[in-house]
Design a protein that fits this description.
Length: 260
């Protein structure tokens, strides 16, 4: 008999920021395993391109424009997602933005709240609706759910000029641990992924600096930048029944950077 542990047919996953980078890497892994996928992003053309790419795997794919920092937009888009798919089994809160590299003592209120608004408030808005949906389904006799956040290596390392970014990612780890305890009774697990230096649009500026790139690469034991596809496997595992008893964990995917 074939092992169906990682067959995600019949499951629906929502990935915010799923139209590029790590989010799209996770979405591809899920779709490849048979999962129906809904991606949210703020760029309509990128959403369209990503949806077309995911459709090649033969599952039901939808895409919606949504700014997760806007609670009204999240409420409406989550309702639209349910209208299309009927359910959400896994919610990957991946949407995020970087800081502007400003000296900490010169941060403005606008810069601080710009990052907090997407990276932490946006996760709250998204998880709020996903968790309620999963709880209500469990109470109706269908207990299953996955809450997965994308944090960062910055949550556990010192990142100068990025204190607001680091604060959001550290806060996400704490939020996930609390969610894991509160929602376990509903068959819902909650885990967080901490990417290291991954080659995406957010990091292209830093990686394009030869001095910076050389200094960082020396500290990555596997001697390469991470790629979005490096997150396909962890997304599939967390969405599958193989992770039923695995919750409140932080998955550091950094090529060994943090320990070297």
């Amino acid at each position: 008999m074939a092992d169906t542990t990682f067959n995600l047919s019949g499951k629906v996953a929502l990935i915010t920021g799923g139209n590029g980078g790590i989010g799209l890497g996770m979405a591809e892994g899920l779709a490849r395993a048979g999962c129906d996928v809904c991606i949210w992003g703020t760029n309509k053309s990128k959403n369209t391109d990503a949806a077309a790419r995911l459709a090649a795997y033969g599952t039901d794919v939808s895409a919606f424009v949504c700014d997760v920092s806007d609670p009204a937009a999240v409420e409406k888009t989550f309702a639209d997602t349910l209208a299309h798919h009927g359910r959400v089994d896994g919610c990957f809160a991946n949407a995020g933005i970087g800081g502007r590299g400003i000296q900490f003592d010169e941060f403005t209120e606008e810069e601080w709240h710009r990052v907090i608004g997407v990276n932490l408030d946006g996760v709250f808005h998204t998880f709020k609706h996903a968790a309620r949906h999963m709880r209500e389904r469990a109470n109706a006799g269908d207990p299953f759910g996955r809450l997965v956040g994308t944090a960062s290596l910055a949550a556990i390392s010192g990142q100068p000029r990025g204190e607001h970014y680091a604060a959001t990612k550290g806060g996400l780890i704490s939020m996930i641990r609390a969610l894991a305890v509160e929602y376990a009774r509903y068959g819902v697990t909650a885990n967080v992924i901490l990417p290291g230096w991954i080659e995406t649009a957010m990091t292209e500026g830093s990686m394009g600096n030869p001095k910076f790139a050389d200094a960082v690469m020396r500290r990555i034991p596997v001697r390469r930048w991470g790629q979005p596809e490096d997150f396909a496997g962890i997304a599939t595992y967390l969405m599958s029944t193989a992770s039923n008893y695995h919750t409140a964990d932080s998955f550091l995917i950094d090529g060994g950077y943090a320990v070297f």
